[in-house]
Structures
1.
Amino acid sequence: MAEAIRIYPPKPDRVYLFGTCLVDSFSPQTGLDAIALLKYLGIEAAFPHAQTCCGQPAYNSGYDREARAVARSQMDLFPEPWPIVILSGSCGGMMRKHYPALFDQASEVVAFTERVFEFTEFLRHVVQPTLTDQGDPTRVTLHTSCAGRRELGIHEHGLALLGQLQQVHLVPHDYQEECCGFGGTFSVKHANISAAMAEDKTRNLLGAGVDEFVSTDWGCMLNLNTTLEYAQQPLRGRHLISFLAERIGVSEADRQPGATQVLAEAAG
Amino acid sequence: MKQQPEAFHPNSTAALADPVLRSNFRGAMDFLRSKRRTAFAVDDAEGGDFDALSRRGEAIKQRCLQQLPALLEQLEQNCTRNGIQVHWAETPAQANQIIESLIRARSGKHAVKGKSMVTEEIGLNDYLDDRGVRCIESDMGEFIVQLAGETPSHIIMPAIHKDAGQIASLFEKTLEDTPYTEDVDRLIGIGRQQLRERFQHADVGITGVNFAVAETGTLCLVENEGNGRMCTTIPPLHIAVTGIEKVVAQLSDVPPLLSLLTRSATGQKITTYFNMISSPRKPGEQDGPEEVHLVLLDNGRSQAFADEELRKTLQCIRCGACMNHCPVYTRIGGHAYGTTYPGPIGKIVSPHLLGLDATKDLPTASSLCGACEEVCPVRIPIPKLLQRLRVESSHAGTAEEKVKGAGSGRKPLEALVWRIWSWACRHPAIYHRGASLAAHGRKLFKFLPSRWKTQRTMPQPAKITLHTALKNRQRRSASPCPQEKIY
């Protein structure tokens, strides 16, 4: 369930970035775009190199002891009191909503979770930028991940940010609130049901007649993009952050892996 | 009816391959979702605030469950005082035996039954049939399902998987002198005609219970067709069967729960009939049964009750909203689950009724999308309970294993994989080396054997990981390579 009220801090100079394991392996560009976008908005991103995965795959599979050990190791990587910005609603949900349950609501864990922000939520409520669209007219639909929608309510932030872009025509698609069928290990354990859900979802995305679709969860996007590829459809999804970075004119050079904007070493 | 949750995989595969079933369910679920949405619309002054009403419903159910043993005793006392005889059954077999002996005592032969999932749970129809008592379903949906030799595929609308054409063929084939017609009103008329005669000749009426009120000893029954009222008034013997979780403390607990139930289930503000049964026929009264009995069934419910987290399973008021909004149920329908209670609620109830060994595939058959929790009128945290059952099933060793059959889903290889995964995630050098190797060998990914690939291509890692890309960035800069960099 989405949170009712959250008190947001003022815009900081520096945040931690938690890239997520799927971004790390399948879409490093999303991470590079997030860093470039933050820099464009005047915020430095610290990226603890020891970060791996939030622990969600094991947690959702019923291996909570294994998940707890991983969660513990990740929490240790963010010692400074800076906001921790996460590139996925689902991992954000894990860290905000499920870490406290894993550690019996221990107060230091609860304090940690309060520093956790999903990227679009952080943009909309903490940074509060005025976005100026630099791109050509385009038709876009947003796939709202279920964790993002129901655990964190972040789909509203994605829609609000996209809504600021004057040349972007936001198109809803049928069954927008319905799951794409990913669900982590569900997509393998019950591959046939998962694939049926993905097939329906991609049909609805295609039916919206859009130029592209965006999402904030690479889990959903792996599921949907591979379904679209299998069906030999040209449509592909990408992360909302990459879309925003491109639309508001974040420098192409800053978004490249070779960009050399290292500013300072982290404290500690 | 035989329950087969062990066959979930083949059953769901078969259901997915049936285009008529897929389209029937999609249409039916869309219809029910839209009805519910209207019933809880914010501009409807009576039902608008779903959040407030569901919080109230949750509080009532939790309060009643907290004092469940005491309420059940109070219910028994007050029912008995009213002349309703109360029986306790721990297992389905005991419940069936009690019901059979009550029917035998009156030499009953013909039973009519109102819609009751708990009698499906105990397999009452088959049990009685084997012993010479014919039990006819009197709810139209149940009647159709019974004619077809099937089980209900939904707890509110048992025949929702069938379209008018299929019902027309079924009536034509199984009922004498019945022409084929797809006219829904005529189909209902045909069914009613059949049932009228059964009511007149029945010597036993069997029903479920929606709410059993402890303070007054009253059994509440919600229905739309009037068949429930006939089952409880025409035959001389009425036997009500219910799970122990249906007890509420007082009459004032009923209206909010009733409002949540009917709005969530069929989008109605209230059903056509709401029966309150407080006693058998009294001297001088014109109608009503001579005897009323209540059978209280445990069947694994006290196992759920014993654990504070799993107890929330018992909050369920059987509205079916979770099924109607579940993307898995929408695609495979109720029969694939092989359990009396399908869908999200079935996945958390069935392990208590049948044991996790028989039902271990059910808690895994969810993407944890949360749609069920979002619409649940009594706020059962279904995804959380599914996860808890996954822990119980895999025997991770941290949960207290309280569910029958706990640990039966544990696969040594899977457990080992998670142990290695956890270890690697805590050793970044190993993890990143692994991720880098995967990136180098990314072209090989499509050759990996995986069930993922049935209707999808295999995801391919990027050329380099984000971790490597950022490391490379640092190397190009003048500074040495620390553990953490600021960009």
2.
Amino acid sequence: MIGALWRGASGMQAQQLQVDSLANDLANVNTTGYKQGRAEFTDLVYRPVQEGGMPVDRPQAPAAAPALGAGVKVAAIEKDFSQGALVSTGDPLHLAIQGEGFFAVYGPGGEWFLTRDGNFHRDGDGYLVNAGGYFLEVPFTLPAEAEKITITGEGTVTATINGETQVLGEINLYNVPNPAGLEAVGDNLYRETAASGTAVAGRPGTAGLGTIRSGYLEAANVDLATTMTRMILAQRAYELNARSVRVADEMWGLANNLRR
Amino acid sequence: MLRGLYLSATGMVVQELRQDVITNNLANASTGGFKSETATIQSFPEMLLQRLEKGRATPVGCFSPGVMVDRIHTNYAPGPLEETGRPTDLALLDNAAGTPPAFFAVQAGATEAYTRSGSFQVDAGGFLVTPAGYPVQGQYGAVYVGTTNFKVDSSGQVLVNGQVVDQLRIVTFDGPTLPLLQRQGDNLFTAPQGVQPLPAANFQVRQGWLEKANVNVAREMVDMLAVLRTYEANQKAIQAADQTLGKSVNEVGSLR
């Protein structure tokens, strides 16, 4: 019976984590390049039932000893890297990735991250930086006199400098074998881990990488209707488990009151 | 009378076990591919009671010394499917009703385990794995899907860049061996020694879909109420037996 209490508690805890994850998705519904999480549940270990104090001459030995499960846990909260909607902004330095892949950015301290947030602009020295001041990994800078900057789907950056159209360079995209293994570090950035595998650079539009859409930003891929539905389900599942905890408690009370 | 006490106690123990099974089902109502369980109850073998009278034993009748959990039965009925659109999500659809369910085979350490939960990932090496990191099995061991988009057709063939690279190992168990499967946690089943899986025939793989738990919540709630009340009834029976015992111990033969 105490076991039933713990099982119910494990269910409440798992659903609470699910609600936390959903609440975070809802909070980031307007965050550029945000990817929603998905809680994965698995059952816990099973232990054989030992019936103490029961007669030993069972009618027939059961095929397999009955086993009781120990509840549930959240195995992982996986990022869902499906495409978010592309929102037109008109600024050619606003980049969105249509398809798979990430932009690589350098922090001021030299640390290296991946991101889907293509909210870039030109800083005073001509570097392409994102909202947090992180540098886009490109082998060129944009001169102050560069005008009419265009970025093609394959990442080629051209600009008109002093009336002359020049190719400045290319933007590469990166992909990792297991995006779900990336570590989200906040600020729309992801860090490569052993679980994600090493990021491999490639030209946009080749080797499974998506293409770059200049003048667009990728909206969060949070689907409000689905998230709200999941929230309702999580709340009901929480209530169910709370109910089973209450019933287990009532049973315990009955056992305690055997001797009045 | 003491027998009555113990008999009701077995009833309470069994209801407790049923409650354990129900809470586990409810806790796993959101677990992908989870199969609900029911504890089946049976009474202990009946025994013949005899009375000794004038040096002779005459039969009184049959008596059962209580109840116990017989088996914990797994309900392998398919759970509802949910579309997720993710290529690493696979669901198994059993074509004919009443046939034993098909399972994905995964390598869990040294043993092969089976799962209905098709929420997979691609690991750092490009292999298809479960959330716990166990590689999903194809005909040639772990299934390599690489980093590019891969397809799984309805027969379980894995296609990378349009080329068939492997076929998922999808197995089933015949009717009598199905109840012998043991649960391992992490949504896995294992087969005991001597039970061999058979290649599954009547199934379809759906990519981008997930199978949810097959827990019938309303049924579990009703069962839980029944458990609580049966438990209460057994408690009352024990109290009544105790009162009777108290009377015979304290009141019979007391002179007042």
